[in-house]
UniProtKB/TrEMBL annotation, chain A:
It comes from Ornithinibacillus caprae. Keywords: Signal. Residues 1-21 form the signal peptide. This is Phr family secreted Rap phosphatase inhibitor.
TrEMBL record, chain B:
InterPro entries: Cro/C1-type_HTH, Lambda_DNA-bd_dom_sf, TPR-like_helical_dom_sf, TPR_rpt. One of its GO terms (molecular function) is DNA binding. It holds the Pfam family SNAP. Residues 7-61 form the HTH cro/C1-type domain. CDD domains: HTH_XRE (cd00093). This is Helix-turn-helix domain-containing protein. Signal peptide: none annotated. It comes from the Bacteria. PROSITE patterns: HTH_CROC1 (PS50943). SUPFAM superfamilies: lambda repressor-like DNA-binding domains, TPR-like.
Amino acid sequence: MKKMIAAIALGTLLVGGFLFTQDNQPTDVATGESEPSILKAMSINTSFDF
Amino acid sequence: MEIGSFIKLQRVKQGMTQEELADGIVSMSYLSKIENQRTEASPEVISMLCTRLGIELDSDKDITIKEKCENWFNMLFEVNDKKEITETYNELSELLALVRSDSLMMFEIHKIRYFLILGEYDNALEQINKLNEVSGSFDSLHLFYWYKFKGNYSSLNSEFAQAMRMYKHAEDKLNQIKLDEEQVADLQYTMAVTHSKLRNTLESIEYANKAIDLFQKEYNFIRCAQCHIVLGISYRRIKMYDKAIKHYNLARHLGELNKSKQVIQLTNQNLGYLYSSVGDSKEAIKHFIEVVEDEKLEINERLLGLTNLIKEYYKIQNFDQATKELERAKHLLQLSTDNVNHRLYEYIIHTFSYAISEQHEQFTSLVMEEFLPYLQKRKDYGNLIVYSNMLAKHFEKVGRYKDSVKYYKLANLTYEEVVNI
């Protein structure tokens, strides 16, 4: 019985830990590298300012 | 779009309650049934409700509106003239306020993207909240754009994990609808960029390759170039430098063919970063200078190039050049106070100014008390590693070993978080 409770507790901790890391993914990590915009096709005539 | 959903949308848009709309025409519960498509009302009732909402029912006008709407939707993807987009938007808003059109719901959903393009993020959020009420009646095509644009909103707010969830929902809708290949490619390209932001390198490569295949078929070379840049970044991250350089060169070539300064300079920016990361400062500086010298480029992009250039000069201990570039960066920064990264650049510039002029107290106080907490709050882990390392090295140099260990440890822990060990 004790083993079962310990196994369930450990399992919960592992799943919880996994979910926590999933939700704490790093966001913008650019340090000088720069991805193109998701909104515009770049052109020399562009007047967008984002 | 079903008439019930249309009436509900118009009522919500005008801030009218069900009681106000139903008054004297039908009971409130019957109106609720009409709106939720649980009953079919007679044409007379529909006509009376539309009259109260101030809307015409004219099918000829609807065809014109549909064409105009489709034209405007396309503008939101390819045309770069803000004025033209706004003018068409105003014209359509006026038309759709008066005439019942099947295009209305699609127009309302595309308004999210429109506000994002104009940089009006609060309006985009307000539109999302407004549409939430009627999202239960969306068909698969509506849902595709709904998820995609909600993802765009999250992307532009740097919430990339949330954005990816939305893009995956949109992707799930693809097998239920028929879309132009370019639209599919646009979603794949957006997902490639978002995976890159999340450092999911292999996924980023996969989606960028899928998007390139489709953009090539459509001869959309600028979009192909953008995909090559994403691939360049991804291959650099997994240290396949030759492949990364090949993709950057392809992007630059396409940029030159299409006379796109932005593509060319974005390629230079990233090539500079690649050479810097492999320790070839001479090549890195050459590429950063090309970005910095281009006065036609937006200030934000030039500032990114400048801060990279300053870092590189600092790295090779060419403090005279670094100081010269710092002055130029300060001047540029003054010209762009509304820049979203204004504070970040300000911190970087001051950090290097203090470091070069050996103002130790100002340097440690700025980095410890302001800059690092700011980066932690922004979850900007890349910069956090760079600047906590810089501070740790400084402490080591002046013999404050305990403090040095503390910041090396911070850099190390942050690195573990980035690579998800």
